[in-house]
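Q: Got a minute? One more chain.
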Amino acid sequence: MSQIHIKQGRIIDPANKINCVGNVYIAGGKVLSVTDQPADFTPDTVIDAQGQIVCPGFIDLSTRLREPGQSRKATFKSETIAAASAGVTTLCLQPDTSPVIDTPAVAELIKELAEKAGYPQIYPIAGLTRKLEGTELSSMLSLKQAGCIAVSNAHQSVKNLLILRRAMEYAASHDLLVMIRPNDYWLGNNGCAHEGAVATRYGLPGIPEEAETIALAQCLELVNLTGCRVHFGQLSCKRSVIKIYQAKKYGLKVSADVAIHQLHLTENDIIPFDSSYHVLPPFRTEVDMKYLRQGLASGTLNSICSDHQPHDIDAKLGAFPETEPGISSLETLLPLMLKLVAQRAITLEQGIASLSENPARVLHLKRGALTVGYAADVCVFDPDLEWQVNAGNWNSQGINTPFWGQTLKGRVTHTVQAGNVIYSLLC
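A: Always. Here it is, folded:
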C-alpha cells in the first residue's frame, strides 16, 4: 500500500477532539500520524487539502445497493462509486435483498460482490427472521460468524411480539445489535404520506405518527425485558425523540438515527403527485422536523444516515401511492449535513461526528476516527464548493431525489478507504 500525505487541511476529528490545521500521514493502510511528520516518511501520494476539511470517512448505517436481485435499479459498482464520491467509506446493507440476507451463503455473496466492486467495507445486516416474514428466527450466530454486523427485519414489521422478544433474547445472548425501523403494520395501513392536512388535501392514504411511536414503545419495553442492544433507525417524529431521550435517561442500551432528508423536508414541501417525495417513514410536520434537529444536536439521536434507496424510472411512475418509496441519497448526504450547520441547527463537529464517530460506536467498529493505528478511512471535502445535482455530477444509478436540479454547497474532493484513494474529484 502507498504512503499518503494529506497536507495542510483543517483536521476535524471529533473522536480525538482535534480541530486544527495540519497534516495526516498514512502508511500500510493505517493512520500513521496526525499533525507530526514521522521520521523517514516519503509519501507516494500528496493530497493538498489547503482550504478544505479533513475528517474521518463517513459510515452509513442504512443503505440499499439493489444487488443481489434488483440490478435493473442499481448495482454494487454504481452505488459504491456514488458512496466514494460522497466521502462514505463504510456501508451497512439492509437485509431486504433478493434473496434475503438470512443465510451465511448470502452473506458470503455480499462480501464477494463488494470485493468485485473494489469497495470491501460493506457490512451486511442479517435478517432478524427468515425471509423477513416475522415467523421464524434466523440463525443469528452463524450469520454473525459469516460477517453480519447486526440483524434487522428492514421495513417489515414483526407482528408477533413474542417472536420479537425471542429474537431480542437470542441476539442479546450473542451480543448482536438489533436494528429496528419502528412501524406498526396495521396502523401504517399501507399509507404513503403523513396523516395530516396535506394527505387529506390530496387524497393520499395517511400514516399516523402513532404507527411509529406505538411500535417504538413496544420495542423499548422489550429492550428493558431482554437487555438487548437495539438501534432504532430512520425516526421521523417529535414523540419518538422524546421516547428515545427517556429510554437513554433510564439506562436502556439504545441508540437511534435519522435519515438526512427528514432533517430538511416536511409534508408541506411535497409537490403534489411528485413521487420523489414518497418515502417511508413519510415526511411529517415542521414541529417534528424541529425536534429531530434538536434531538441530533442534543445527542439523543446519535447518527445521520442516508437511507439510500435507488430506484429505476418505472418504480417512480404512476399515482403517488402506487410508486415505490425511497430516495437516492448518498450523494446529497454531505451538502445537506453542511446545510444544517449553515442553519445553525448543529455544529460542524456534531455533523461530522454523526456521520463517523457515532455510527462507529453504535456498530462497535474501530473506525470513524483518525486514531493512530486505525484503518485510514478519510474524507477530504471543500465546504464552499457549489455544485448542481444533475446528470453530469451524479454517480448513482438511481436519480430519484427531490433535490434534482438544485445547487448545493459542499463537495468531496478525495476519499481514502483503508489507505487506498478510491475517489478524487480531479480524476
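A: DSSP finds twelve helices and 18 strands in the chain.
Q: Perfect, thanks.
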